[in-house]
Amino acid sequence: MNLNDLNPPLVELPPNLTWYRIQRTRALRGSVRLRGFVLPPKGVMAGRFDLSDEATAYLADSELTALYESEFRREATSCHIERLRKRSLTSFSATATLRLVDLRGLEEQFPVLQSLRYEATQAFAADCRSAGAHGVLYASAQHSYHACVCLFEAGIDRMKRIAQVDLVLPGTGRLHQSVVLAARGSAVPLIGMEKSE
C-alpha cells in the first residue's frame, strides 16, 4: 500500500477547527513536548501512522472520539481510575490550513486501514510526509461517523493548545462528564473507584 497506488484525495482543512486528544498531564522522561503536545518518544512505532524519525500526534474530532480511541477502545475490558488521573483532555486549534491525505471512506477497499497490522500504514504515512502532507485524516475505528487525524511535525507546528482539563478532578475524584459518557457508551467498567467517588 503506497500513496501512488491508493491515490486518496488531498484536502485542506481551514484553521480554527478544534481537535481533541487524551494525553499525559505530565510528560514522562523521554517524552516529546511540542506546542502543548506531550508525545511518545520518536521511533516508538506503536501507532498506525507513526514515523520512525519524528513525533506524530493523534487527535479526534470530538471529546468522546478521543476517549474511545485512547481509553475506551472496543477491545478494552476495563479502565483503571489511576490511569485516568494521569491524563488530561486537551484541545487544539490549527493556526493555519492543514494539508491532509484523506483516507475516510477507503476502509472497505483497504481493510489494513483498520487492522492491527501497522507496518503498511506506517510506510504509507512516510509516503504522505514525503509528498508534503501535514498528516493523515481517517475514519475513527472506535466511534462511527467520526474522524481522527495523525499530524506529522509540519502539522504539529500549525497547532496551538487552547485548553487542558483533567479527566479526574484533583482532590474530589469527580470524573469529567465526557469520561462518564464514554464509559457508559462503551460499557467498559471503571475500576479502582472508591465508594465516596
TrEMBL record:
**Per the database record, which ranges form the RES domain?**
40-163
Q: Name one Pfam family in it.
A: RES
> Taxonomically, which superkingdom?
Bacteria
Name the chain's protein: RES family NAD+ phosphorylase
